[in-house]
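The protein record quoted in full:
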Amino acid sequence: MAQLWGGRFTKNTDAEVFAFNESLSFDQRLYKQDIEGSIAHVHMLGTQGIISSEEAALIKKGLTGILEDIENGTLSFGPEYEDIHSFVEANLIARIGDAGKKLHTGRSRNDQVALDMKLYVREETDEIRGLIKKLAEELLIIIKGNTDTYMPGFTHLQKAQPVTLAHYVSAYMEMFLRDYDRLADLRKRMNVSPLGAGALAGTTYPLDREMVARELGFDYATFNSMDSVSDRDYCIELLSACSIIMMHLSRFSEEMILWNSNEYRFVEMDDAFSTGSSIMPQKKNPDIAELVRGKTGRVYGDLMGLLTTMKGLPLAYNKDMQEDKEGVFDAIDTVKDCIHLFTGMISTVTFRKDVMEKSAMMGFTNATDAADYLVKKGMPFRDAHGVIGTLVLRCIEKNCAIEDLSLDELKEICPVFDNDIYDAVSLKTCVNKRLTKGAPSEASMKDAIAHYESLLSSMQ
Protein backbone atom coordinates (compact mmCIF):
# COMPACT_ATOMS: atom_id res chain seq x y z
CA MET A 1 0.00 0.00 0.00
CA ALA A 2 1.68 3.21 -1.20
CA GLN A 3 0.41 6.09 0.93
CA LEU A 4 1.50 9.69 1.49
CA TRP A 5 0.99 9.46 5.24
CA GLY A 6 1.55 6.98 8.08
CA GLY A 7 4.08 8.39 10.55
CA ARG A 8 1.44 8.96 13.16
CA PHE A 9 0.05 5.42 12.79
CA THR A 10 1.22 2.23 14.49
CA LYS A 11 -0.80 -0.22 12.43
CA ASN A 12 -1.21 -0.77 8.72
CA THR A 13 -4.52 0.09 7.11
CA ASP A 14 -6.91 -2.85 6.96
CA ALA A 15 -7.03 -4.24 3.42
CA GLU A 16 -10.79 -3.77 3.15
CA VAL A 17 -10.51 -0.24 4.48
CA PHE A 18 -7.81 0.51 1.91
CA ALA A 19 -9.98 -0.87 -0.87
CA PHE A 20 -12.96 1.17 0.32
CA ASN A 21 -10.85 4.32 0.69
CA GLU A 22 -8.78 4.16 -2.51
CA SER A 23 -9.63 6.27 -5.54
CA LEU A 24 -6.90 5.36 -8.03
CA SER A 25 -9.27 2.98 -9.79
CA PHE A 26 -11.19 6.01 -11.08
CA ASP A 27 -9.07 9.12 -10.45
CA GLN A 28 -6.24 7.72 -12.57
CA ARG A 29 -7.79 9.58 -15.49
CA LEU A 30 -6.52 12.76 -13.78
CA TYR A 31 -2.88 11.76 -14.29
CA LYS A 32 -2.19 14.43 -16.90
CA GLN A 33 -3.75 17.21 -14.84
CA ASP A 34 -1.99 16.02 -11.68
CA ILE A 35 1.41 16.08 -13.39
CA GLU A 36 0.79 19.41 -15.14
CA GLY A 37 -0.22 20.96 -11.82
CA SER A 38 2.82 19.50 -10.11
CA ILE A 39 5.16 20.84 -12.78
CA ALA A 40 3.71 24.35 -12.36
CA HIS A 41 3.94 24.01 -8.58
CA VAL A 42 7.58 22.89 -8.56
CA HIS A 43 8.51 25.60 -11.06
CA MET A 44 7.11 28.14 -8.62
CA LEU A 45 8.92 26.48 -5.66
CA GLY A 46 12.21 26.83 -7.52
CA THR A 47 11.52 30.41 -8.58
CA GLN A 48 10.66 31.37 -5.02
CA GLY A 49 13.79 29.72 -3.65
CA ILE A 50 11.78 27.29 -1.54
CA ILE A 51 13.71 24.49 -3.21
CA SER A 52 16.86 24.87 -5.32
CA SER A 53 16.63 25.44 -9.06
CA GLU A 54 18.56 22.19 -9.58
CA GLU A 55 16.02 20.25 -7.53
CA ALA A 56 13.17 21.91 -9.39
CA ALA A 57 14.68 20.98 -12.74
CA LEU A 58 15.26 17.38 -11.62
CA ILE A 59 11.69 17.04 -10.36
CA LYS A 60 10.23 18.50 -13.56
CA LYS A 61 12.29 16.11 -15.64
CA GLY A 62 11.09 13.18 -13.54
CA LEU A 63 7.45 14.26 -13.82
CA THR A 64 7.75 14.69 -17.58
CA GLY A 65 9.18 11.19 -17.84
CA ILE A 66 6.30 9.74 -15.82
CA LEU A 67 3.79 11.49 -18.07
CA GLU A 68 5.47 10.16 -21.21
CA ASP A 69 5.66 6.63 -19.83
CA ILE A 70 1.97 6.62 -18.84
CA GLU A 71 0.95 7.81 -22.27
CA ASN A 72 3.15 5.35 -24.17
CA GLY A 73 1.94 2.48 -21.99
CA THR A 74 5.22 1.57 -20.30
CA LEU A 75 4.01 2.69 -16.86
CA SER A 76 0.75 1.27 -15.55
CA PHE A 77 -1.35 2.05 -12.50
CA GLY A 78 -0.81 -0.52 -9.75
CA PRO A 79 -3.41 -1.49 -7.14
CA GLU A 80 -1.02 -0.75 -4.29
CA TYR A 81 -1.46 3.02 -4.65
CA GLU A 82 -4.15 4.95 -2.81
CA ASP A 83 -4.79 7.62 -5.43
CA ILE A 84 -3.29 9.33 -8.46
CA HIS A 85 -1.31 11.70 -6.22
CA SER A 86 0.47 8.92 -4.32
CA PHE A 87 1.06 7.06 -7.58
CA VAL A 88 2.82 10.02 -9.19
CA GLU A 89 4.81 10.97 -6.11
CA ALA A 90 5.93 7.42 -5.32
CA ASN A 91 7.09 6.88 -8.89
CA LEU A 92 8.87 10.23 -8.87
CA ILE A 93 10.79 9.35 -5.69
CA ALA A 94 11.68 5.93 -7.11
CA ARG A 95 13.14 7.62 -10.20
CA ILE A 96 15.01 10.64 -8.80
CA GLY A 97 15.48 9.85 -5.11
CA ASP A 98 15.12 12.27 -2.20
CA ALA A 99 14.59 15.31 -4.39
CA GLY A 100 11.21 13.84 -5.28
CA LYS A 101 10.17 14.08 -1.63
CA LYS A 102 10.23 17.88 -1.94
CA LEU A 103 7.51 17.97 -4.61
CA HIS A 104 4.73 18.24 -2.05
CA THR A 105 6.26 21.21 -0.22
CA GLY A 106 3.63 23.88 0.47
CA ARG A 107 0.83 21.72 -0.87
CA SER A 108 -1.91 19.43 0.43
CA ARG A 109 -3.81 16.73 -1.36
CA ASN A 110 -6.87 18.90 -0.67
CA ASP A 111 -5.80 21.79 -2.90
CA GLN A 112 -4.04 19.37 -5.25
CA VAL A 113 -7.17 17.38 -6.05
CA ALA A 114 -9.20 20.59 -6.31
CA LEU A 115 -6.73 21.78 -8.92
CA ASP A 116 -6.76 18.46 -10.79
CA MET A 117 -10.54 18.47 -10.99
CA LYS A 118 -10.69 22.06 -12.17
CA LEU A 119 -8.14 21.42 -14.88
CA TYR A 120 -10.00 18.30 -15.97
CA VAL A 121 -13.48 19.82 -15.88
CA ARG A 122 -12.25 22.91 -17.73
CA GLU A 123 -10.77 20.76 -20.50
CA GLU A 124 -13.86 18.59 -20.78
CA THR A 125 -16.11 21.64 -20.81
CA ASP A 126 -14.23 22.88 -23.86
CA GLU A 127 -14.58 19.47 -25.53
CA ILE A 128 -18.33 19.42 -24.93
CA ARG A 129 -18.61 22.91 -26.37
CA GLY A 130 -16.77 21.69 -29.46
CA LEU A 131 -19.21 18.80 -29.85
CA ILE A 132 -22.18 21.13 -29.51
CA LYS A 133 -20.71 23.35 -32.21
CA LYS A 134 -20.42 20.34 -34.56
CA LEU A 135 -24.05 19.44 -33.84
CA ALA A 136 -25.13 23.03 -34.49
CA GLU A 137 -23.26 23.00 -37.80
CA GLU A 138 -25.19 19.89 -38.88
CA LEU A 139 -28.46 21.45 -37.80
CA LEU A 140 -27.65 24.56 -39.85
CA ILE A 141 -27.23 22.40 -42.96
CA ILE A 142 -30.72 20.99 -42.38
CA ILE A 143 -32.16 24.44 -41.72
CA LYS A 144 -30.65 26.01 -44.84
CA GLY A 145 -31.93 23.20 -47.05
CA ASN A 146 -35.51 23.16 -45.77
CA THR A 147 -36.90 26.68 -45.59
CA ASP A 148 -39.68 25.57 -47.96
CA THR A 149 -40.28 22.11 -46.50
CA TYR A 150 -43.77 22.50 -45.06
CA MET A 151 -44.93 20.47 -42.10
CA PRO A 152 -47.34 20.73 -39.19
CA GLY A 153 -46.39 22.45 -35.97
CA PHE A 154 -47.93 20.96 -32.85
CA THR A 155 -49.37 21.88 -29.49
CA HIS A 156 -50.55 19.11 -27.15
CA LEU A 157 -49.27 16.74 -29.86
CA GLN A 158 -52.17 18.00 -31.99
CA LYS A 159 -51.53 19.52 -35.39
CA ALA A 160 -51.76 23.27 -34.89
CA GLN A 161 -50.32 25.59 -37.56
CA PRO A 162 -48.07 25.10 -40.57
CA VAL A 163 -44.35 25.67 -40.15
CA THR A 164 -41.28 24.50 -42.04
CA LEU A 165 -38.73 21.87 -41.16
CA ALA A 166 -36.16 24.67 -41.05
CA HIS A 167 -38.21 26.51 -38.44
CA TYR A 168 -38.78 23.33 -36.43
CA VAL A 169 -35.10 22.40 -36.35
CA SER A 170 -34.06 25.96 -35.55
CA ALA A 171 -36.01 25.65 -32.29
CA TYR A 172 -33.51 22.96 -31.27
CA MET A 173 -30.67 25.09 -32.63
CA GLU A 174 -31.70 27.75 -30.12
CA MET A 175 -31.58 25.21 -27.30
CA PHE A 176 -28.11 23.97 -28.17
CA LEU A 177 -26.79 27.50 -28.62
CA ARG A 178 -27.97 28.25 -25.08
CA ASP A 179 -26.18 25.11 -23.94
CA TYR A 180 -22.98 26.35 -25.56
CA ASP A 181 -23.31 29.74 -23.85
CA ARG A 182 -24.11 28.09 -20.53
CA LEU A 183 -20.89 26.08 -20.70
CA ALA A 184 -18.89 29.16 -21.66
CA ASP A 185 -20.41 31.02 -18.73
CA LEU A 186 -19.68 28.37 -16.10
CA ARG A 187 -16.14 28.03 -17.47
CA LYS A 188 -15.49 31.64 -16.48
CA ARG A 189 -16.47 30.96 -12.88
CA MET A 190 -14.39 27.80 -12.58
CA ASN A 191 -11.27 29.37 -14.05
CA VAL A 192 -9.60 30.32 -10.76
CA SER A 193 -6.73 28.38 -9.23
CA PRO A 194 -7.11 26.72 -5.81
CA LEU A 195 -3.47 25.59 -5.59
CA GLY A 196 -1.70 27.09 -2.61
CA ALA A 197 -4.75 26.90 -0.36
CA GLY A 198 -3.10 23.99 1.44
CA ALA A 199 -5.28 21.73 3.53
CA LEU A 200 -7.60 24.65 4.34
CA ALA A 201 -5.58 27.55 5.80
CA GLY A 202 -2.85 28.29 3.29
CA THR A 203 0.82 27.83 4.17
CA THR A 204 3.75 29.62 5.76
CA TYR A 205 5.89 29.09 2.66
CA PRO A 206 6.24 32.17 0.42
CA LEU A 207 4.26 30.72 -2.45
CA ASP A 208 3.49 32.76 -5.54
CA ARG A 209 -0.02 31.54 -6.18
CA GLU A 210 -0.64 33.96 -9.03
CA MET A 211 2.42 32.64 -10.87
CA VAL A 212 1.01 29.11 -10.74
CA ALA A 213 -2.43 30.38 -11.78
CA ARG A 214 -1.01 32.15 -14.84
CA GLU A 215 1.12 29.16 -15.84
CA LEU A 216 -1.93 26.88 -15.76
CA GLY A 217 -4.13 29.28 -17.70
CA PHE A 218 -6.31 30.47 -14.81
CA ASP A 219 -7.51 34.05 -14.54
CA TYR A 220 -6.29 34.39 -10.96
CA ALA A 221 -5.87 32.49 -7.68
CA THR A 222 -8.77 32.03 -5.28
CA PHE A 223 -9.31 34.51 -2.44
CA ASN A 224 -10.37 32.10 0.33
CA SER A 225 -8.39 28.99 1.16
CA MET A 226 -11.28 27.20 2.92
CA ASP A 227 -13.62 27.66 -0.01
CA SER A 228 -10.82 26.66 -2.38
CA VAL A 229 -10.61 23.11 -1.07
CA SER A 230 -14.31 22.60 -0.33
CA ASP A 231 -15.79 24.12 -3.49
CA ARG A 232 -17.41 21.73 -5.95
CA ASP A 233 -19.83 24.27 -7.40
CA TYR A 234 -18.08 24.04 -10.75
CA CYS A 235 -18.74 20.30 -10.86
CA ILE A 236 -22.37 20.82 -9.94
CA GLU A 237 -22.71 23.58 -12.54
CA LEU A 238 -21.24 21.32 -15.19
CA LEU A 239 -23.55 18.46 -14.23
CA SER A 240 -26.49 20.87 -14.32
CA ALA A 241 -25.47 22.09 -17.77
CA CYS A 242 -24.99 18.48 -18.90
CA SER A 243 -28.46 17.61 -17.59
CA ILE A 244 -29.99 20.45 -19.62
CA ILE A 245 -28.05 19.35 -22.71
CA MET A 246 -29.37 15.83 -22.22
CA MET A 247 -32.91 17.16 -21.76
CA HIS A 248 -32.63 18.94 -25.10
CA LEU A 249 -31.17 15.86 -26.78
CA SER A 250 -33.91 13.74 -25.24
CA ARG A 251 -36.67 16.01 -26.53
CA PHE A 252 -35.17 15.97 -30.02
CA SER A 253 -34.77 12.20 -29.79
CA GLU A 254 -38.41 11.87 -28.85
CA GLU A 255 -39.34 13.83 -31.98
CA MET A 256 -37.20 11.52 -34.10
CA ILE A 257 -38.74 8.44 -32.49
CA LEU A 258 -42.25 9.72 -33.15
CA TRP A 259 -41.41 10.89 -36.66
CA ASN A 260 -39.83 7.52 -37.44
CA SER A 261 -43.00 5.64 -36.46
CA ASN A 262 -45.37 4.18 -39.03
CA GLU A 263 -48.02 6.66 -37.91
CA TYR A 264 -45.89 9.71 -38.75
CA ARG A 265 -43.39 8.50 -41.38
CA PHE A 266 -41.75 11.95 -41.40
CA VAL A 267 -38.23 10.51 -41.34
CA GLU A 268 -36.27 7.47 -42.45
CA MET A 269 -33.39 6.57 -40.16
CA ASP A 270 -30.12 5.62 -41.81
CA ASP A 271 -29.28 1.91 -41.54
CA ALA A 272 -26.00 2.73 -39.81
CA PHE A 273 -27.88 4.36 -36.93
CA SER A 274 -30.69 1.80 -36.59
CA THR A 275 -31.07 -1.78 -35.44
CA GLY A 276 -33.44 -4.62 -36.25
CA SER A 277 -35.50 -7.12 -34.32
CA SER A 278 -34.40 -10.65 -33.48
CA ILE A 279 -37.89 -11.94 -34.24
CA MET A 280 -39.67 -9.37 -36.45
CA PRO A 281 -37.82 -9.03 -39.77
CA GLN A 282 -39.68 -5.88 -40.83
CA LYS A 283 -38.48 -3.80 -37.88
CA LYS A 284 -36.06 -0.88 -38.09
CA ASN A 285 -35.64 0.56 -34.64
CA PRO A 286 -34.37 4.06 -33.69
CA ASP A 287 -32.12 2.69 -30.95
CA ILE A 288 -29.67 5.62 -30.86
CA ALA A 289 -32.48 8.11 -30.23
CA GLU A 290 -33.99 5.80 -27.61
CA LEU A 291 -30.68 5.33 -25.82
CA VAL A 292 -30.02 9.07 -25.77
CA ARG A 293 -33.48 9.53 -24.27
CA GLY A 294 -32.77 6.79 -21.73
CA LYS A 295 -29.31 8.00 -20.75
CA THR A 296 -30.75 11.40 -19.85
CA GLY A 297 -31.95 9.94 -16.55
CA ARG A 298 -28.45 8.67 -15.87
CA VAL A 299 -26.98 12.17 -16.11
CA TYR A 300 -29.79 13.57 -13.96
CA GLY A 301 -28.80 10.94 -11.38
CA ASP A 302 -25.18 12.09 -11.45
CA LEU A 303 -26.30 15.64 -10.72
CA MET A 304 -28.61 14.64 -7.89
CA GLY A 305 -25.94 12.38 -6.41
CA LEU A 306 -23.40 15.19 -6.11
CA LEU A 307 -25.95 17.71 -4.85
CA THR A 308 -26.93 15.23 -2.15
CA THR A 309 -23.29 14.52 -1.25
CA MET A 310 -22.52 18.22 -0.83
CA LYS A 311 -25.67 19.42 0.88
CA GLY A 312 -24.62 18.72 4.50
CA LEU A 313 -20.85 19.15 4.46
CA PRO A 314 -19.29 21.58 6.94
CA LEU A 315 -16.15 23.48 5.96
CA ALA A 316 -13.63 22.61 4.81
CA TYR A 317 -12.56 19.38 3.04
CA ASN A 318 -14.32 16.10 3.89
CA LYS A 319 -13.65 12.66 2.45
CA ASP A 320 -17.23 12.61 1.15
CA MET A 321 -16.00 14.88 -1.61
CA GLN A 322 -14.11 11.99 -3.17
CA GLU A 323 -17.55 10.98 -4.42
CA ASP A 324 -17.56 13.89 -6.85
CA LYS A 325 -15.37 12.17 -9.40
CA GLU A 326 -17.21 9.10 -10.59
CA GLY A 327 -20.46 11.00 -11.17
CA VAL A 328 -18.67 13.82 -13.00
CA PHE A 329 -16.68 11.37 -15.10
CA ASP A 330 -19.80 9.39 -15.94
CA ALA A 331 -21.84 12.45 -16.89
CA ILE A 332 -19.07 13.84 -19.08
CA ASP A 333 -18.55 10.52 -20.86
CA THR A 334 -22.29 10.06 -21.36
CA VAL A 335 -22.94 13.55 -22.68
CA LYS A 336 -20.00 13.44 -25.07
CA ASP A 337 -21.07 10.06 -26.46
CA CYS A 338 -24.69 11.16 -26.81
CA ILE A 339 -23.90 14.44 -28.59
CA HIS A 340 -21.48 12.69 -30.94
CA LEU A 341 -23.84 9.87 -31.86
CA PHE A 342 -26.89 12.11 -32.09
CA THR A 343 -24.96 14.35 -34.49
CA GLY A 344 -24.17 11.35 -36.66
CA MET A 345 -27.77 10.19 -36.56
CA ILE A 346 -29.35 13.56 -37.41
CA SER A 347 -26.86 14.20 -40.22
CA THR A 348 -27.89 10.96 -41.95
CA VAL A 349 -31.68 11.15 -41.48
CA THR A 350 -33.83 11.31 -44.61
CA PHE A 351 -36.75 13.72 -44.18
CA ARG A 352 -39.93 12.68 -46.00
CA LYS A 353 -40.90 16.11 -47.28
CA ASP A 354 -43.97 14.90 -49.17
CA VAL A 355 -45.38 13.15 -46.12
CA MET A 356 -44.73 16.20 -43.94
CA GLU A 357 -46.55 18.52 -46.36
CA LYS A 358 -49.53 16.19 -46.76
CA SER A 359 -49.76 15.87 -42.97
CA ALA A 360 -49.88 19.66 -42.62
CA MET A 361 -52.66 19.89 -45.23
CA MET A 362 -54.79 17.06 -43.84
CA GLY A 363 -54.31 18.29 -40.29
CA PHE A 364 -56.11 21.61 -40.96
CA THR A 365 -53.05 23.55 -39.84
CA ASN A 366 -54.29 26.38 -42.07
CA ALA A 367 -57.61 26.68 -40.19
CA THR A 368 -56.47 29.77 -38.27
CA ASP A 369 -55.49 31.41 -41.55
CA ALA A 370 -58.91 30.58 -42.98
CA ALA A 371 -60.51 32.32 -39.99
CA ASP A 372 -58.20 35.31 -40.47
CA TYR A 373 -59.33 35.40 -44.13
CA LEU A 374 -62.94 35.88 -43.02
CA VAL A 375 -61.92 38.51 -40.47
CA LYS A 376 -60.20 40.50 -43.22
CA LYS A 377 -63.50 40.30 -45.15
CA GLY A 378 -65.20 42.08 -42.25
CA MET A 379 -66.47 39.17 -40.12
CA PRO A 380 -65.93 39.30 -36.32
CA PHE A 381 -63.25 36.78 -35.27
CA ARG A 382 -65.55 34.82 -32.97
CA ASP A 383 -68.04 34.31 -35.82
CA ALA A 384 -65.21 33.41 -38.18
CA HIS A 385 -63.95 30.87 -35.65
CA GLY A 386 -67.37 29.18 -35.66
CA VAL A 387 -67.58 29.14 -39.45
CA ILE A 388 -64.19 27.50 -39.82
CA GLY A 389 -65.07 24.96 -37.13
CA THR A 390 -68.08 23.96 -39.24
CA LEU A 391 -65.87 23.91 -42.32
CA VAL A 392 -63.36 21.58 -40.66
CA LEU A 393 -66.18 19.25 -39.61
CA ARG A 394 -67.35 19.08 -43.22
CA CYS A 395 -63.78 18.22 -44.33
CA ILE A 396 -63.51 15.49 -41.73
CA GLU A 397 -66.75 13.96 -43.01
CA LYS A 398 -65.41 14.04 -46.57
CA ASN A 399 -61.83 13.07 -45.57
CA CYS A 400 -60.33 16.01 -47.40
CA ALA A 401 -58.39 19.22 -46.78
CA ILE A 402 -59.94 22.69 -46.72
CA GLU A 403 -58.45 23.56 -50.10
CA ASP A 404 -59.97 20.39 -51.60
CA LEU A 405 -63.52 21.78 -51.23
CA SER A 406 -65.04 23.50 -54.23
CA LEU A 407 -65.95 27.18 -54.04
CA ASP A 408 -69.64 26.23 -54.12
CA GLU A 409 -69.14 23.97 -51.11
CA LEU A 410 -67.31 26.74 -49.30
CA LYS A 411 -70.02 29.31 -50.11
CA GLU A 412 -72.66 26.88 -48.89
CA ILE A 413 -71.07 27.18 -45.47
CA CYS A 414 -70.33 30.90 -45.73
CA PRO A 415 -71.09 33.18 -48.70
CA VAL A 416 -68.14 35.44 -47.84
CA PHE A 417 -65.72 32.91 -49.37
CA ASP A 418 -64.34 33.75 -52.80
CA ASN A 419 -61.67 32.39 -55.15
CA ASP A 420 -58.89 34.11 -53.21
CA ILE A 421 -59.48 31.71 -50.33
CA TYR A 422 -57.36 29.06 -52.02
CA ASP A 423 -54.26 31.21 -52.09
CA ALA A 424 -54.97 32.47 -48.58
CA VAL A 425 -54.93 28.96 -47.09
CA SER A 426 -52.08 27.47 -49.14
CA LEU A 427 -49.25 26.28 -46.92
CA LYS A 428 -46.79 28.55 -48.71
CA THR A 429 -48.95 31.62 -48.03
CA CYS A 430 -49.72 30.59 -44.46
CA VAL A 431 -46.02 30.26 -43.70
CA ASN A 432 -44.56 33.13 -45.70
CA LYS A 433 -46.96 35.83 -44.54
CA ARG A 434 -45.68 35.28 -40.99
CA LEU A 435 -42.95 37.86 -41.21
CA THR A 436 -42.36 38.70 -37.56
CA LYS A 437 -38.92 38.00 -36.13
CA GLY A 438 -38.67 34.35 -35.17
CA ALA A 439 -41.56 33.24 -37.40
CA PRO A 440 -41.29 30.44 -40.01
CA SER A 441 -41.44 32.52 -43.21
CA GLU A 442 -38.55 32.27 -45.64
CA ALA A 443 -37.74 35.95 -45.01
CA SER A 444 -37.62 35.46 -41.24
CA MET A 445 -35.63 32.25 -41.56
CA LYS A 446 -33.13 34.03 -43.82
CA ASP A 447 -32.40 36.42 -40.97
CA ALA A 448 -32.17 33.53 -38.50
CA ILE A 449 -29.74 31.66 -40.75
CA ALA A 450 -27.50 34.71 -41.03
CA HIS A 451 -27.60 34.99 -37.24
CA TYR A 452 -26.65 31.33 -36.79
CA GLU A 453 -23.83 31.57 -39.31
CA SER A 454 -22.42 34.56 -37.48
CA LEU A 455 -22.62 32.80 -34.10
CA LEU A 456 -21.01 29.61 -35.37
CA SER A 457 -18.16 31.49 -37.00
CA SER A 458 -17.40 33.21 -33.70
CA MET A 459 -17.39 30.01 -31.65
CA GLN A 460 -13.95 28.90 -30.50
The CA atoms of residues 109 and 301 lie 28 Å apart. DSSP finds 19 helices and six strands in the chain. The beta strands are 150-155, 158-164, 192-193, 220-221, 267-268, 350-351.
